[in-house]
Specification:
This protein is α+β, with helices and mostly antiparallel strands. 43% of the residues lie in helices and 21% in strands. The longest helix is centred in the N-terminal third of the chain and has 24 residues. It is flat, with a radius of gyration of 22 Å. The chain starts with a strand and ends with a helix.
Amino acid sequence: MDHNGINTSQSALFLATLWWTGRNRNLMCLNNQTWPLICIGTNFYNSVGIINSAFKNDETATSVDRYVKWNCDNHMGTILNVDGSCNGTPIRTGFGGIFRNNGGLSLFAFSCMISHYEDILLAELTKIYHGLRITIDMGIDDLTCYSDSFLSINLIKGDTPHYHIYVVLIQQYL
């Protein structure tokens, strides 16, 4: 197949090269990791096959409907989902959250940036703190908060050392 002078296998190779080159660079810069060349080559090869099959024009293929729904885990109150992120240069640290009722209807959402910090723990703790402050301001009595930060949850639930850098922020939860 040819599209604007580029065949699909060349396009797939180009996309896979972009993806795995960027991914490898991020691992080196952000995690100080390197992958062996054989690993990167295998990832290239597998990705080209996946990309080619994804864009294959197969008239006999049928689509399958997939139904996705909100899962409130049988909680009858308000649910708050929060997340934080941190990115190196330029420094970008932020957090956000969304309040939903038990039916999945969005009630309120928030997001914020933290200037001049690249500390993911600060973002993770601040997202929970900010969400709980909004909960109080909105007069919400029954709340379940979901966070993907195991460290933040453990610091909030456990005995936080008095010398911890974020002890003042953590103690606000108690």
